[in-house]
Design brief:
The protein has 437 residues and is α/β, with parallel strands linked by helices. The chain folds into 3 domains: 4-123, Methylthiotransferase, N-terminal domain (Rossmann fold, 3-Layer(aba) Sandwich); 142-369, tm_1862 like domain (pyruvate-formate lyase- activating enzyme, Alpha-Beta Horseshoe); 375-431, Nucleic acid-binding proteins (OB fold (Dihydrolipoamide Acetyltransferase, E2P), Beta Barrel), CATH 2.40.50.140. The protein has helices spanning 13-28, 52-71, 80-86, 89-93, 109-116, 160-164, 172-184, 210-218, 237-245, 262-267, 274-287, 306-319, 346-369; strands spanning 4-9, 32-34, 42-47, 75-79, 99-101, 121-123, 142-146, 148-149, 168-169, 189-193, 224-228, 252-254, 292-299, 324-328, 375-383, 389-393, 398-402, 410-418, 422-431. Mean pLDDT is 94; it is low at 433-437. The structure holds iron/sulfur cluster (SF4).
């Protein structure tokens, strides 16, 4: 009998891609991937623990499964970083969870689901690297490709090294084969993924470095290459020069700054200072005047003073990010930060977050207005709820496109409108591609 599986994901792109891997494993094992929770026989929550709020959101969704369980038999599995860190304790804490799995080893999921039909069960494998991709991708335009798993940096606020294990680089030939396969399937873009892509290859001697990998990927015939996330301590001039030399490497750099204060950066164990961050971003912009720099930052880290926070605001003014993913600090179990007093009051964190977001909205709007009247190339990625086609510019800005075209095409548009989060305009030129998969 058909078993329908619904997968819901929280967290970063690594988790989104892991869910694509889970979908691929389960589809190969004969399960049907279901888009609606209320029609599923098995519900999988691929959870995130990077912030307390992300964790709470997963538990907030359990009620929807409990409702379904009242009507018919439904199995609920919780995994990802959340499963890896809490393990068996999740079964004790939430009676409606039937099985728990970790942040890797999802190839064992079909067996785990079958065992969970008889009894509640937990299976945590040691973090391993699934070198052969099992992904069943949601997008048929842009394919995520993992190049590293895990992280060895141990930033003091971050649970990733505990949830995903040490940094492991995926063999270069497997990455290139996967990109070539995506090209053959009609994909236009690849997004190379890792917690810290710039450290690719530092854990083994046979792979070369990230700059070499980026060059090789850009020469596979794929139209666009992106990568994320970059760590300022490992970002090099060599990588920036590859971005200049290889015309299909996009001019977008997601470079997580986390704070603009040296004392906070030290307490976070980030291993760079603000001068280094500013120097890297300046070098990038000198080499690529059209470079869009985006970032992550945390407000209210233990001990962050008003002065420290003003240094962060000053960094925002200097760098003028295209967008900022900002979050209030929350202590995470196992991390060194959890031993520090969480001494910035909630109201202060809230006010700081609001100031960051408000100032950033204004900067983004000002930056986007510079594009009015310009012609830019956009890769169309999908159709929004209002029926409008959207895509991304080379520098990662979201663009709403008016005119007749299909998803998965490179088009030229003239920018006519802007908001803080997107550009919009009419299509001038379509460059028809050989067709989607
Ligand atoms: S670099 Fe730091 S913030 Fe990023 S995943 Fe590693 S430990 Fe976490």
């Amino acid at each position: 009998m058909e078993t329908r599986v619904y997968i819901e994901t929280w967290g970063c792109q690594m988790n989104l891609h892991q869910s694509e891997g889970i979908a691929g494993v389960l589809a190969s094992a004969g399960y049907t991937i279901e888009e609606n929770l209320d029609r599923a026989d098995v519900v999988i929550f691929n959870g995130c623990m990077v912030r307390q709020k992300a964790e709470e959101k997963v538990f907030g969704r359990v009620g929807a499964v409990v409702e379904e369980k009242r009507k018919r038999p439904v199995l609920l599995g919780v995994g990802g970083c959340l499963g890896q860190i809490h393990g068996e304790a999740l079964l004790k804490r939430v009676a409606s969870i039937d099985f728990v799995f970790g942040s890797s080893g999802h190839k064992a999921l079909p067996g785990l689901i079958e065992r969970a039909r008889k009894q509640r069960v937990t299976e945590l494998s040691e973090p391993v690297f699934d070198t052969e991709s099992t992904a069943r991708r949601k997008s048929q335009v842009s394919g995520m490709v993992t190049i590293t798993e895990g992280c060895s940096n141990f930033c003091t606020y971050c649970i990733v090294p505990y949830a995903r294990g040490p940094m492991r680089s995926r063999p270069r030939d497997l990455i290139l084969k996967e990109v070539e396969r995506l090209c053959g399937d009609g994909y236009r873009e690849v997004l190379l993924l890792g917690q810290n892509v710039n450290s690719y290859g530092t854990d083994r001697t046979d792979n070369g470095d990230f700059a070499g990998l980026l060059t090789a990927v850009s020469r596979t015939g794929i139209s666009r290459v992106r990568f994320t996330t970059s760590h300022p301590k490992d970002m090099s001039e060599t990588v920036l020069r590859v971005m200049v030399q290889e015309p299909n490497v996009c001019h977008h750099l997601h470079l997580a700054c986390q704070s603009g204060s040296d004392s906070v950066l030290r307490a976070m164990n980030r291993r760079y200072d603000r001068d280094h961050y500013i120097a890297i971003t300046k070098m990038g912009r000198d080499l690529m005047p059209d470079l869009n720099i985006t970032t992550d930052l945390i407000v209210g880290f233990p001990g962050e003073t008003d002065d420290d926070f003003e240094r962060t605001m000053d960094l925002i003014e200097r760098v003028r990010f295209g967008s900022v993913f900002a979050a209030k600090y929350s202590p995470r179990p196992m991390t060194r930060g959890a031993d520090l007093p969480d001494n910035v009051p909630a109201s202060v964190k809230e006010a700081r977050l609001e100031r960051v977001l408000s100032r950033q909205r204004t900067i983004a709007l000002e930056e986007n207005r510079h594009f009015i009247g310009c012609e830019i190339e956009v890769l169309t990625e999908g159709v929004a709820k209002n029926g409008e086609l959207y895509g991304r510019a080379d520098d990662h800005r979201t663009v709403m496109c008016q005119g007749d075209t299909d998803v998965g095409e490179l088009v030229t548009i003239r920018v006519e409108g802007t908001s803080a989060s997107s550009l919009s305009g009419g299509i001038l030129v379509r460059e028809k591609h050989g067709g989607m998969k």
